[in-house]
Every structure is written in structure tokens, then in C-alpha cells.
Amino acid sequence: MISHEYFQELISMHALGALSRAERDNLQAHLRDCADCRERLAQERAIVQMLPRSVEMVEPSRETKQKLFARVDADLARTQNNARAARRAPARAPRRNWFAQPAFAFAVVAVMLVALVGAYALLQNRVSPEQQTMNAIMTDPNVQQVALAGTPDAPNAWGRVYMVPGHSQAVLQVGGLQTLPQDKVYEFWFIRGQDPHASNLFTVNADGTMTLLVKANDKVENFNAWGVTIEPKQGVTKPTGTLVILGGG
Ligand SMILES: [Zn+2]
Q: Is the pTM of this model over 0.85?
């Protein structure tokens, strides 16, 4: 009689499609009588369904690998004990020829499957080079943060610039901005002294926020202020419109 606990352990493997036919048949039979295991399987399947959308899942997790290898060990021990009992011969020192074991082959396939799912997830997400640069800036140990504020023309607006000295790109976060008419755009400025240098044009989400990678024509530490104006759609080289966000100085 195989125990409920044994099947509980098989369920994650099953959700990944990594069981042998015999194991699967045994599990199916148990599932007919065990609501607990059915529910667990549904949960595990839901998790597997989510994998393609999870960026973190690039490699099989350590836990998954450990589970797999723990199973390989358990299977090996079982088959070796059975073989010994059948032969009734003095036990030889168990030889670990994992590659010859079907269970090991299965484990390898399962690990590869998880790795493939992860790679697929990465492709699905298509993390843009721009997003990768933004992530690198935000997580850089030398990142500096400057708070920007709404001007009297846009009192609810706010902004933040994240920058790493030595780089000429920064991450800009803004909020509290209005959606603009079709012929207008927000323009970001890197300011040195009294001299604004044109950077990116952008629009905002329906909730008035936006996060974007902004490019300067010099290293970020060579600027001392940052601002946002409302400009004609094609952008301008010197500010002409309403200043809505400003910071530094
Ligand atoms: Zn059960």
C-alpha cells in the first residue's frame, strides 16, 4: 500500500510532466480517492501555468533540483534493495552509475524541462534592453536619487531621478501629471547652471505616471537640476512651454 505522503511528493513532479508511466498510473488511481491530493495538484498546476510569465524562473530553482535528486536517491535505494533481495547474494558496495538509471534520465529531462520553461519565459517577457538598463541603474549600489517637485502650474506633480555617476542615462519616474492633447508632449531636461539640455519626450499613463530611461548628452554628475516642460509634439531644443516639474538647483 503506497502512502498518501508518497503521492503528495509526486504531485509537483506530475504537474511538471516528469513522472514515469507507472508513477502516473498509481497517482491517477490515488487521485480518484483523495480530494486532498486533487486539490494539491490543482494548485501545483496553477503554479506551473504561471511559470511562463515569471521572469525570475531562469534556472530550475535549487529546491526543485533538490527534490529531483532526493527522488533519484530514493529510487536508487529502492531498486538496489530489491535487486539485493532478489539475488540473495552478499551485497556488493552499491555502484552509483546514475546515467544508467532510468530515474536519473527522467530527472535530467525534468530539470531541462524547467530550464526550457524559464528560457521561454524570458522570451515571452522580451525584457527590452531599455528595461534592462533601467533595472541595472535602479539596483546599482552607487545609485543616487533626486526628488523633483511639481511647480505651481502642476502642484500635484512629482518626479524622481535615479542616476549612477559616470553614466549618461538615468531613470525618470513621474506622477501626478495630466494626459496631454494629441499635439503636445512632455519633455525632460538635464540642466547645467541655467542651461537646459533637451532629453527625452514622453507621454504619461492614464493614471498620470510614467517611468522611462532618459538620456543626457554628458555624464549625469555634470548636471545640477532636472525639469519637465509641456512642448509641441515634435519636441524643442530649448524650453518653450509650461514648466511642470523641477528639482535640484
Ligand atoms: Zn492523497
A: no
